[in-house]
């Protein structure tokens, strides 16, 4: 049983993002031919409470190049014996650790296109002063016992930060809401969790 709807929630004071500036010449070390990052998952937390939900993160498209970016998948599994309504495990925003990349759910109204091309390698200087996001409500999933649903995400460069997909480790955190089948919010269940990914240059470039 799967259905999606929007939870009522306070608007996110976020924003839509633009691509990086492309007017400068490529740097000597990063060109369209050589620019590449590999993305891997380094840690996945589970909610610290006794909530009936587990999360997992995978990276089916691991390479970031001048022509494409990486996509992540986050799965949510109902480990309890009842139907639960679970907010999307992460929606959009910056990491909680190093700056340099943004992550968007492909359900977000302002997510960059799937055909996003990381042109920031041409000019790795910041091209924006800030990033703002649309403020729609967050999607939810109704999950039957043992049911799993997967959300897809796109990884993009942060135009407010110097560099182009800096080779660092990034941690993302979120606190999804949980409701029962009567739409009653379970205030006493904490689903706070997080995960870490690492962006690395290919071995031949290090």
Summarize this structure as a short list of keywords or feature phrases.
37% strand; elongated; mainly beta; DUF8130; five-stranded antiparallel β-sheet; 206 residues; four-stranded antiparallel β-sheet; disordered N terminus; DUF8130 domain-containing protein
Give the integer mean of the pLDDT values.
86
Q: Tell me the count of domains.
A: 1
- Helices and strands, in order, run as EEEEEEEEEEEEE
Structural class by secondary-structure content: mainly beta
Distance between the termini: 47 Å
Protein name: DUF8130 domain-containing protein
Region (Disordered): 115-134
Organism: Halovenus aranensis
Pfam families: DUF8130
Give a quick rundown of the structure:
This protein is mostly beta strands and 206 residues long. The protein is built from no helices and 13 strands. Residues 115-134 are annotated as: Disordered.
SSE topology:
Blueprint: E1 4-6, E2 36-44, E3 53-61, E4 63-65, E5 71-78, E6 84-87, E7 92-94, E8 101-105, E9 139-143, E10 148-157, E11 169-174, E12 178-180, E13 193-200
Region (Disordered): 115-134
Organism: Halovenus aranensis
Pfam family, one: DUF8130
Structure description:
This protein has strands spanning 4-6, 36-44, 53-61, 63-65, 71-78, 84-87, 92-94, 101-105, 139-143, 148-157, 169-174, 178-180, 193-200. The chain has 206 residues and is mostly beta strands. Strand 7 and strand 8 (101-105) form a beta hairpin. Strands 3-5-10-8-7 form a 5-stranded antiparallel β-sheet, with no helix packed on it. Strands 1-9-6-12 form a 4-stranded antiparallel β-sheet, with no helix packed on it. The protein is elongated and about 55 Å long. Helix content is 0%, strand content 37%. It has one domain (22-205). The protein contains no helices and 13 strands.
